């Protein structure tokens, strides 16, 4: 059993002087395509890469099997004329049909990961629900395909066109409509940026029940359309529970006015749920009403090292039991991920000793003293039981950010060598890490992993939202390589399917996962989903070539 | 400002010797129709009434405008033969078609409130999902109408037939399938009784995220089908957020295998959500997977008196702010409701003084000392600010139950004089109590309210889940009277519609509210809901004459 003095030593306050990968927040202004572009993912970081948009391959070239559906009309000057008259303002339309507007349009054609690039020549920015309704009705009547677009920060290519689909960008619908300080119900336009809403709520001592790395650019409408998970799910639950109402426009122009602010309303089918995670394939979300909890006064963060995945599971159970209502995050990072972060940043590690696993836990509550006491008691307990080997607790906001940096910095640092194969998976918690070990072994045995440049793979790492059974399996590579891809797929998907896991826990399907849904859903479920798609969008104009 | 000594006085420990309306739990055994029947509602109580089932009017007589749809086949001996062969066991079928089985069948024809009574002659109790599938396929092929039935404890007539629909009772599917102690995912058959599941979870130090008065008899499948709200919603959120997966059988026999145990799964439309609150009109839920939180060690209950509804709102805001993560209930009771409870039970009131409003707050957390400190600090604060006039805190489990009795005993006590008109409403919180005042004034002015037997109305009372903006407006009557009904409707519904409230917060639509959905939903929404109904149940065999 660990001695008391060792416990005390381990519970020393963190003294981290340098700031590891801190969490960058993109400025709120509209993203413009740059020659040194910045990519971002919803797990939390922006990374610098080089090269202009010209170097991104068109999706139509990367996926030659996907053919433009000839049922869709080509955009004509007459169509553009209609939209210009409808939307009125110069700023509401980017017209690459009647003139050359390539540079202005490119940011709307390409995604943040620089993996997907479409051929659209028309971007519409409606300013009201009525305008969205008229746009969609016209597109539906004229068989014009449409891609709804929020902050364009997704990871699966869901928010950019594949061919010449019209982009309907929601950035001009960016008003906070109302907030009820007693009930906590917030009503916003779909184009309100997550960080703007959270900042507004902070002033009212409330919190948006969702947080993710792309908060500086992602739209709430997009968050809802993709059923974003993020960092606060463990505490506040999913959007299926928090969203109170949705206003959406269906392909035929019908405005679905389900924007209630009531916590309880048992009058008929809860249709709005289909739009949460519907990824813009049934219609366009124009407004969202959401329940926002009281903001916690006290935030504590602890970071600790553990000797095995079995101990990680034990620590999670103890944290759930002892920290219960104040536990707001339980994040897992393996040694490999922390080694790479250290290599890239050169920062001093939070713990002096090294361990196969690290966990970050966050508590948030209304009473700082109580929370400190609970957290320290928990840490003492797990140290005494030798579940946890070493740990630190952050003192002050700066150290909180520093410790989070070791978790949130992972995706950024992994990209350092050239590229990353990313999988976002739900796995029964007892087997969660086994996939990382098996994948690493497989890649190692294939001779693809090594320290030198003739090996494409730098390392196979695992991290993620342990509290939600959500693993991010990442393979950091020096270069994208068909041999690596072949070693990974369908291996990873088959592994997941055998365990009834999900091949997309929080990123969605988009274009990237469309073909793999069968690993997580039965034929019956897929058939039932297609029924719904056909019911709402019989012409198939909404976000074609993607999703189911 | 209140003096310190007054605060201390008010914060005395409750010394309640007698037990007011305590919370009766119906035995778990299958309910049998009795000459002295017991009725129960989902708000929390059972009440004794007299008279046999024979005295309940048939729904077809109460609502002569509802006609049996001739498209449905009449049940023949051949049908019965098929079902007997399919289900095999004697106990799986109650056949009133080929023989007289009236007494055995009546419990399945009548509802708990003794308001609705059908004419079915056939009750089926399938024992597996496959059997449910074969039953529904046969019914669909033969145009036989079906009513799915769980614990039959609903309040809107949703779970009993109107005419001769076949009752598919789920009581034989009553197995707990699995529980994952790390993730908290519980998987059960639809027919598992809520209290059985919660008892099972208690042993595992977990809690079912839903609690309601009918827990001793209601089925989890029924809870999910009606999107039950209940007492834990403020803390644990709605079933739309907590249900992880559903297995359901569609009318054509298709088994929808969406019984995942994952907290996150973004692979396609979340179809299971349509079945949460679908009230058995799209199919029959056969299995449920649900996220169950860690059980709290410490439960505290406080009961206090306030001088106005404005102060109730202030108290709620302070409770949300100061008790935050440990607040698990904030219940409102007006003076009228407490007077009636006192009259019926003769119990000693928790507070010595009388007040226009009373609130009950419950906290649940992992640390008893911390919670006590937070609660006492909160009470001191609201007393000093003169938001709260007087208050007590329960000491020990018995006093917790006693204080809850003054809230949970209301529905039972209101029935004492003969009957109750009940409305279950969602209203923006600032106007919530105004409806009670206006209704009371209206009834009073009409000369219907008074202390003597020539007045039908005993009193108009308001109580409910303040934390969820959910008001129960109840009118206690000596006898059901058309004049009272005329004074109440459509007045109440129009009042709700003007404020974008819900005419059914947690009870659902069933038969009782079917005709009033237009007060809470637009024509567009109703049309979209009907599309879904037609998609899943084109023959309309599932729970006809009800819902939308």
Record field, number of beta strands of chain A? 18
Low-confidence stretches of chain A: 1-54
Total count of domains of chain A: 4
CATH fold label of the largest domain in chain A = Alpha-Beta Plaits
Distance between the termini of chain A: 53 Å
Shape of chain A: globular
Strand content of chain A: 15-25%
Round the mean pLDDT of chain A to the nearest integer and report it: 90
What's this model, at a glance?
The structure is a homodimer. With about 550 residues, chain A is of the alpha+beta class.
List strands and helices in order, with pairings:
Two copies of one chain form a homodimer.
Chain A: H1 4-10, E1 38-40, E2 46-48, H2 59-62, H3 77-87, E3 93-95, H4 102-109, E4 122-124, H5 129-141, E5 146-149, E6 166-169, E7 176-179, E8 185-189, H6 194-203, H7 220-225, H8 233-236, H9 239-242, E9 243-249, E10 255-258, H10 272-275, E11 284-291, E12 298-306, H11 309-323, E13 327-334, H12 335-345, E14 357-365, H13 368-384, E15 390-393, H14 396-408, H15 410-414, E16 419-426, H16 434-445, E17 457-465, E18 470-477, H17 482-488, H18 491-498, H19 523-536
Parallel strand pairs in A: 4-6, 5-6
Antiparallel strand pairs in A: 1-2, 3-4, 7-8, 8-11, 9-10, 9-11, 12-14, 12-15, 13-14, 13-17, 16-18, 17-18
Helix pairs in contact in A: 11-13
Family (chains A, B): Belongs to the FAD-binding oxidoreductase/transferase type 4 family.
Domain FAD-binding PCMH-type (chains A, B): 116-295
Keywords (chains A, B): FAD, Flavoprotein, Oxidoreductase
């Amino acid at each position: 059993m660990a001695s008391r003095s060792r416990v005390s030593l381990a519970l020393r306050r963190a003294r981290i002087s340098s700031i590891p990968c801190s969490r960058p927040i993109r400025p709120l202004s509209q993203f413009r395509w740059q020659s040194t572009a910045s990519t971002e993912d919803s797990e939390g970081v922006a990374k610098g890469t080089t090269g202009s948009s010209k170097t991104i391959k068109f999706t139509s070239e990367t996926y030659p099997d996907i053919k433009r559906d000839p049922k869709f009309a080509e955009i004509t000057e007459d169509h553009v004329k209609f939209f210009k008259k409808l939307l009125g303002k110069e700023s509401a339309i980017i017209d690459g049909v009647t003139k050359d507007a390539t540079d202005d349009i490119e940011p709307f054609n390409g995604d943040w990961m620089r993996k997907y690039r479409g051929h659209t020549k028309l971007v519409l920015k409606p300013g009201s629900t009525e305008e969205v309704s008229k746009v969609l009705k016209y597109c539906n009547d004229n068989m014009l395909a449409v891609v709804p677009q929020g902050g364009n920060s997704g990871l699966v290519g869901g928010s950019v066109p594949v061919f010449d689909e019209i982009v309907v960008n929601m950035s001009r619908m960016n008003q906070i409509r109302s907030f009820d300080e007693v009930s906590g119900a917030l009503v916003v336009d779909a184009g309100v940026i997550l960080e703007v809403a959270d900042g507004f709520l902070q002033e009212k001592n409330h919190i948006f029940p969702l947080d993710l790395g792309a908060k500086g650019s992602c739209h709430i409408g997009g968050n809802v359309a993709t059923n974003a998970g993020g960092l606060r799910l463990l505490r506040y639950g999913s959007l299926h529970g928090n969203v109170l109402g949705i206003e959406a426009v269906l392909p035929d122009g019908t405005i679905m006015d389900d924007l209630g602010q009531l916590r309880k309303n048992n009058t008929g089918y809860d249709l709005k749920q289909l739009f949460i995670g519907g990824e813009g394939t049934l219609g366009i979300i124009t407004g969202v009403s959401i329940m926002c909890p009281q903001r916690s006064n006290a935030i504590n963060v602890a970071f600790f090292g553990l000797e095995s995945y079995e101990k990680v599971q034990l620590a999670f159970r103890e944290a759930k039991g002892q920290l219960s209502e104040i536990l707001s995050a339980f994040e897992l990072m393996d040694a490999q991920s922390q080694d790479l972060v250290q290599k890239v940043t050169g920062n001093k590690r939070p713990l002096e000793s090294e361990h196969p696993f690290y966990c970050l836990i966050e508590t948030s509550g209304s009473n700082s003293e109580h929370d400190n006491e609970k957290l320290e008691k928990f840490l003492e307990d797990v140290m005494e039981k030798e579940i946890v080997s070493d740990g630190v607790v952050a003192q002050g906001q700066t150290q909180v950010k520093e410790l989070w940096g070791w978790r949130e910095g992972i995706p950024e640092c992994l990209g350092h060598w050239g590229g990353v194969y990313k999988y976002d998976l739900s796995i029964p918690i007892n087997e969660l890490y086994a996939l990382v070990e098996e994948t690493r072994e497989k890649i190692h045995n294939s001779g693809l992993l090594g320290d030198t440049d003739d090996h494409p793979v730098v390392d196979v790492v695992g991290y993620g939202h342990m509290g939600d059974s959500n693993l991010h399996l990442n393979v950091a590579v020096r270069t994208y390589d068909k041999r690596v891809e072949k070693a990974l797929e369908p291996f990873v998907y088959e592994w997941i399917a055998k365990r009834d896991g999900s091949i997309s826990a929080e990123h969605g399907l988009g274009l990237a996962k469309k073909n793999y849904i069968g690993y997580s859903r039965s034929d019956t479920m897929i058939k039932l989903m297609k029924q719904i798609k056909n019911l709402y969008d019989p012409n198939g104009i909404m976000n074609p070539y993607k999703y189911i």
